[in-house]
Amino acid sequence: MNPNLPLTGLQERRITTILARNHSMFQPHGILDSLACLVNELKLGTLEPQVNACRNQLLAGQGVEVAVFGRFKAGKSSFLNHLAGREVLPVGVVPLTAVITRLRFGPVERAEVRFQNGEARPIALSEIVHFVAERDNPDNQKHVAAVEVELPQLRELAPLAFVDTPGLGSALVHNTQAALQWLPNAGAALVAVSADAPLSERDVALIEQLRPHTPSIVLLLTKADLLTEEQRAEVMHFVRQESRRQWQAELPLFFYSIRPGFERLRHELMQRLLLPLVKGHAEAGTGILRHKLLSLASQLSDYLRVGLAAAEQEETARRALADGLRAERRDGELLRAEFSGLGRQWSAAALETSLARLQPLQAELVARALAELAQRGPEWQPPLPALLAAWRAWLRSFLLRELGDISRSNREMFCEPLSLAERHLARMLQAFQDRLSVHVQAALGVTLSRGAVSLKVPQPAAPPVDVGYAFDEAFTLAGRFLPMAVLRRPVLRALRRKTRWEVEKNLSRLASAWQQRVSLSIGELVLQAETQAAAELAALEQMVVQAQASGPRLRESQSQVVGIQEQLQSPP
Q1: 5-16+50-293 architecture in CATH?
Q2: Which of 39, 179, 316, 475 is the most exposed place for a label (fewest CB within 10 A)?
């Protein structure tokens, strides 16, 4: 059974034609200029990222950017390397900064790094890692804006460009905001999800964030080689069922594997998605732009309806809304305190939770260490200082190896408090938006569409494993004069006790290092929640101020936006 076959028929036609529009009457420059002027006139700063994304898409012309999103280790960089036919992007456990990497066809292999100050310089492909890896570019200290790569191997896929988005999958917290600001620029979106853990809550949240920005979202189920044909069919059924439940529609999905023997999956992705997109790239680019403009117009229309309703109501209604918004602003300090208090609570719980979960691993690790000590100890020769030096070298090597494995394999457990914080803060922010909607409904009779909550921080990179130990220096110095023939067994017994203590201590240090990084991520989430709440409140307050002074202008603006929406929604 081939689980990809159901994508033929209606769904395949959707992939190739959903973005197609009759653009002979479509005037995107004029539409965008009109919407941008209104956003600027009404001082709606919350809509500026969408305006900029529309401008970027307009500048792209008939080009289409296929952005690949995914959680850490979802296999997206490996997928892009496999698609390109060569290793270009760093893969594995290398933590990445929030630097966008763009791959496209070029007649000659070349790479260019672009800096935030507008400068650019060519680099060798082997140098890419020095600009996108946290190890070589910590905190993006080199101020890289993007890395552009051209490859002859991508000729068949011209003029598509493929964008790796490490900021949403494995970047560190210090660059999260830059990655989120890029999100509205997504053209077509491939969401990479490991086939053995499909469509988690975080994946659903990411898709929700993408929906306002692109009409074309495709699920890429990577690591398909981990599943049998029967299991892939079960996963496909589950994912389609979940997508219908979440969005009342089935998202197109493809299995993929970079392993030998699964070449047919790449062929199916090419034939059913990428090559049709190449063939219809002009219509696809127009469709993406139309979708982004319509999303911008819809959000702008919501704010205008509030302002217009406030302008047309009696002064008492306007005052009631203003009073309600003022009350929310007064309570804003309480909301921020609640955000911060919960953030501290989750941060504190991170260490306690990790230590509790690590207890079984700690017992296993101590047992392995003592077994290895019993095997290696007899090899260490006197005098005592040399024996202790050999013990220290062995213990350091053992802990670096074992703790590194524990850190990598238990990443999800260490980051569990971060996922909890993300879900809880999103619900709190949604409740705040609902309260604002209640004020608007009660005062003006206007129902606001529910805005998307876009809280997102990537899981932090694993902390470096650091081993520390202590020993009695006086005992060490005197050891050269002690008779080891008599003391060897007591010394080895002491080293057993010391080894147990060092294993437990350094495992606790690893949990503490993870807790510090998770706490930073939770703090970033709290800051995002506070910023979004303040922006929502400020936008509504601005519309009330506009309503008091310029009712006729708001009616004119609303009529203009409605006309734009009708034009954008017109059938082909």
Answers
A1: 3-Layer(aba) Sandwich (3.40)
A2: 316
